[in-house]
Amino acid sequence: MGIRINKYLSQFGFTSRREADKLILDGRVTVNNKIIQPGYKVQEDEIVKVDGEKIKSNFKKNIYMAFNKPKGIVCTTDTEKEENNIIDYINYNKRIFPIGRLDKLSEGLILLTNDGDIVNKILRSRYKHEKEYLVTVNKKISKDFLKKLENGVPILNTTTRKCETTFINDFQFKIILTQGLNRQIRRMCEYFDFRVKKLERIRIINIKLDVPIGKWRYLSQEEIKFLKNL
Fold first, then answer.
1. What is the full per-residue pLDDT of the chain (230 aa) written as tens digits?
2. Residues 17, 57: Cα–Cα separation, whole Å
3. Which residue in 3, 52, 106, 229 has the most C-beta neighbors within 10 A?
4. Which residues on neighbouring strands pair with residue 64, listed in sequence order?
């Protein structure tokens, strides 16, 4: 029967299916030393390579971790072009990759895994999964400002989805988003002449930030089960 090549690469922790498709289209994936096309089904005894590197197909337990990213660390697996990358910072002994992104100036919760199949469940915008942030701005917050954020803000040629906010103090509030536009919170605040001084993600769906900055933990079985059932 075989297994589709993009699923094969994600199943064995190499990358997500979407990224696997890009690698295949770029001609970087070979089976038995021959470049293959999308949809190719890998058989048990075949040798799969990416950029000439053999993919070890002995299935190992999937890894799911929650990391408290410090400011200045970049969420990329490109360890050659980006010195301050998340992979080298964590220095885990197996191949992992971040699920989604958290911009360089932001800090807080990001998930990492070697399970490419779970990525789409978490990231697909249409599923409207919640992500919660603690935001510190440069001037006093008003109820009117928070209400405007909640009702949608015109940025990046669209209007942001309605969201929830909670007043913390004169300079801090929490915001719950169900989408992930580029630098969304910063752009939303800038639209109303507020500048974000600190941005920390404190929750992704059912997973809360509960480790010190720069540290990580494995997800619990309950957390993993919830994500897989999304």
1. 678 898 888 876 677 888 889 999 999 999 999 999 999 998 877 889 999 988 866 545 789 999 999 999 999 999 999 999 999 999 998 889 999 999 999 999 999 999 888 888 888 767 789 999 999 999 999 999 999 999 999 999 999 999 999 999 999 999 999 998 999 999 999 999 999 999 999 999 999 999 999 999 999 989 998 998 88
2. 16
3. 106
4. 113
202: Cβ contacts below 8 Å, ≥ 6 apart = 108, 109, 132, 133, 134, 174, 208, 209
The three-class DSSP label of residue 9 is: helix
In sequence order, the 6+-apart residues with CB closer than 8 A to the CB of 220 are none
Tell me how crowded residue 14 is: count the other CB atoms within 10 A of its CB: 22
Is residue 103 part of the annotated active site? The answer reads: yes
Q: Which residue in the list 78, 103, 144, 210 is annotated as catalytic?
A: 103
Structural domains of the chain ordered from first start: 3-54 (3.10.290.10), 64-124+207-228 (3.30.70.580), 130-204 (3.30.70.1560)
